[in-house]
C-alpha cells in the first residue's frame, strides 16, 4: 500500500491518498479525508497514522511517501503481525519525535465512552463525525468531520475505534497529546495481541494508550453513566444519523443497567427484550453484552484482567 498525506485545492481538507497493491484489500472509499488543515505533520507519526487507519487492508508492503525512521519501522512491521508487511522508505538517521502533555479520551458515541468521560480525568475529548460539515476544535472537545469511520472493522471494540486513533495521532502534535484513553470494555481473543502491538507502536512515537475500563464490571460502569434521559441526549448528539436514541443498542444497554441497579424488574426485562430484537436485526453485541440478555441475566467473564488505572471520584 502506497500512502501520502495531501491537502485538497482549498487547503482546508487533509486527504490520505493510498494505492492498494497486489496483496492488499480495497477499502469502501478510494480516499480518506478529514476537514482540517494540520499544521505540524511529523513524518513518523504520519506513517503510524496511515498504518492504523489502513490496518485491515494492508498485507504486502507499506510505503508512506515521506518514509519513517528506523526506530519506528520495527514496531510498524510488528503491528501487522502475523502478516509479513514490508515497510519501505526507512531512514537510518535519527529524527526528533515530538511529545505532548495532554490526555484525550477518544469518544466513539457509545455508552462506554459516556462512562469514560464521567469516570476519568482528561484534557480533551475527540470524536469522529460523518454528519457534521466542518471540524470543530475547542478547549475541551474536538469534533472531527471525516470519513475515517468507513475504514473501521466492526468485529470488536478495538477494531472499531482504530480510525479514531489514527485521527488522534495525526492531530497529536497540533493538540499537544501525550496519552489516549480508549472506551474499551472488552477485547476479543484476536484484539488482545493487537492491543499490545498498538501500545508498542504508539510508544515509538511518544504517545501512550490506555484502556482503563477494560474488564470493569457492568455494575461498576453504571455508576459513571448519566440517567437514561441524560444518556439519550448524549447519544442523540453523537448519532445525528439516527432518528431516535431508542434505535441504538447503547441506549438499551444503559437502560438495562439503570433498571437493574434500581431493582426495576419490569424495566430490565423490557430493555433486554429490545436488545434481543436489535441483535436479531443485525446489531453487533460483544460477548459480555450478549450476556446481559441471557435468560438468567448473568454477565459473562471479561476477556482479560481488569483496568490499569482507577476511576476518579465523581461527586
User: How would you sum up the major sheet?
Assistant: 6 strands, mixed
Give the mean pLDDT: 89
Structural class: alpha/beta
Number of helices: 10
Shape estimate = globular
Strand content: 15-25%
Q: How many distinct domains?
A: 3
In N-to-C order, the SSE pattern is EEEHEEHEEEHEEEHEHEHHHHH
- Helix coverage percent: 25-40%
CATH class of the largest domain: Alpha Beta
**CA gyration radius, whole angstroms:** 20 Å
CATH topology of the largest domain: Rossmann fold
Strand order across the biggest sheet?
A: 10-11-9-8-12-13
Give the N-terminus to C-terminus distance in angstroms. 49 Å
CATH architectural label of the largest domain: 3-Layer(aba) Sandwich
Which blocks of ≥5 consecutive residues have pLDDT under 50?
A: 301-315
Number of strands: 13
Mind explaining what this structure looks like?
The protein has 315 residues and is an alpha/beta fold. It folds into three domains: 2-91, no CATH class; 102-210, Rossmann fold, CATH 3.40.50; 218-292, no CATH class. The protein is 36% helix and 17% strand. It is built from ten helices and 13 strands. It has a six-stranded mixed sheet with strand order 10-11-9-8-12-13, sandwiched between helices. Helix 3 (111-119) links the parallel strand 8 (102-107) and strand 9. Helix 1 runs antiparallel to helix 4 (157-175) and helix 8 runs antiparallel to helix 9 (265-280).
Amino acid at each position: 500500500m502506497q500512502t501520502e498525506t495531501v491537502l485538497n485545492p482549498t487547503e482546508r481538507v487533509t486527504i490520505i491518498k493510498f494505492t492498494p497493491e497486489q496483496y492488499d484489500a480495497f477499502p469502501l472509499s478510494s480516499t480518506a479525508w478529514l476537514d482540517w488543515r494540520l499544521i505540524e505533520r511529523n513524518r513518523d507519526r504520519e506513517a503510524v497514522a496511515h498504518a492504523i487507519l489502513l490496518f485491515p487492508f494492508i498485507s504486502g508492503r507499506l510505503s508512506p511517501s515521506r518514509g519513517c525512521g528506523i526506530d519506528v519501522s520495527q514496531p510498524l512491521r510488528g503491528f501487522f503481525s502475523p502478516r509479513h508487511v514490508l515497510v519501505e522508505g526507512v531512514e537510518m538517521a535519527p529524527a526528533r519525535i515530538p511529545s505532548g502533555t495532554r490526555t484525550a479520551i477518544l469518544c466513539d458515541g457509545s455508552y462506554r465512552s459516556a462512562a469514560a468521560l464521567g469516570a476519568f480525568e482528561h484534557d480533551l475529548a475527540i470524536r469522529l463525525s460523518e454528519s457534521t460539515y466542518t471540524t470543530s476544535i475547542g478547549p475541551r472537545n474536538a469534533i472531527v468531520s471525516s470519513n475515517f469511520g468507513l475504514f473501521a472493522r466492526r468485529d470488536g471494540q478495538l477494531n472499531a475505534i482504530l480510525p479514531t486513533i489514527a485521527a488522534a495521532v495525526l492531530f497529536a502534535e497540533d493538540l499537544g497529546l501525550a496519552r489516549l484513553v480508549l472506551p474499551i470494555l472488552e477485547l476479543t481473543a484476536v484484539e488482545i495481541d493487537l492491543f499490545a502491538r498498538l501500545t508498542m507502536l504508539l510508544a515509538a512515537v511518544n504517545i501512550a494508550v490506555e484502556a482503563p475500563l477494560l474488564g470493569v464490571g457492568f455494575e461498576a460502569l453504571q455508576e459513571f453513566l448519566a440517567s437514561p434521559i441524560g444518556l439519550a441526549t448524549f447519544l442523540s448528539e453523537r448519532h445525528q444519523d439516527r432518528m431516535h436514541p431508542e434505535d441504538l443498542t447503547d441506549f438499551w444497554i444503559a437502560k438495562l443497567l439503570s433498571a437493574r441497579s434500581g431493582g426495576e424488574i419490569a424495566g430490565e426485562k423490557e430493555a433486554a427484550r429490545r436488545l434481543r430484537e436489535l441483535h436479531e436485526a443485525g446489531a453487533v453485541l460483544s460477548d459480555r453484552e450478549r450476556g446481559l440478555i441471557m435468560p438468567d441475566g448473568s454477565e459473562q467473564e471479561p476477556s482479560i484482567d481488569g483496568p490499569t488505572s482507577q476511576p476518579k471520584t465523581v461527586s
